[in-house]
């Protein structure tokens, strides 16, 4: 399941708008308005851009695609939703209609968005870390696992899935390599060899959001050198392959950066 609307902090119903498309887009994807795209275009919506370090190039997130209006509708196993196919061919438009989709607008702070957390691509679960070096003080998670990105300090959550600390989570304050992650506030019990943890680049409260080029999931294994500003209301890392977070966009993520 890609991104979806999970409600509103004010209890209000989602604001839905029909919008033309500037490229093929799919249900469950975050989108920009091409009016704000520095590359120009047709004025329709386009898939959200992966965050870049040059934040002035990151365009505001407009909303989540919740439906396809025209008859070009087709399911994509890559995007895990129906898509509206962009075309400028007159005969195709006459046959299937003007390509457009329904967008649930994402209001800063207010709109709740639920997104699956994956490892760089939708459907690829976060890699579990099996501890190889014990930590009696409960502050160091060490595992021979080079699949874990060196995530920027304070931008990741470590969750224990197996061991004495099962069900507990902490903010990773130092990631010194792809194999060692340290927390400042210790887990309540010693970390033992064989314990299983998972680490995701999402933290409760103010945090960063990054997503892959498909714009249909949270990239939970990201170094967070660039991101959209969000507020995480919930980060759930309990079950492998079913990790998710609920968040709101902060104003910067919904406005032009330059």
Could you explain the architecture of this structure?
The protein is mostly beta strands. It has two domains: 4-116, no CATH class; 118-253, no CATH class. The protein is 3% helix and 38% strand. It contains one helix and 20 strands. The chain has one helix at residues 90-96, and strands at 4-8, 16-20, 25-26, 30-33, 45-47, 63-68, 74-76, 81-84, 100-105, 111-118, 128-130, 140-142, 156-162, 169-175, 180-183, 196-200, 205-209, 218-219, 228-236, 244-249. The longest helix has 7 residues, at 90-96. The model has no long low-confidence stretch (mean pLDDT 89).
Architecture blueprint of SSEs:
Layout: E1 4-8, E2 16-20, E3 25-26, E4 30-33, E5 45-47, E6 63-68, E7 74-76, E8 81-84, H1 90-96, E9 100-105, E10 111-118, E11 128-130, E12 140-142, E13 156-162, E14 169-175, E15 180-183, E16 196-200, E17 205-209, E18 218-219, E19 228-236, E20 244-249
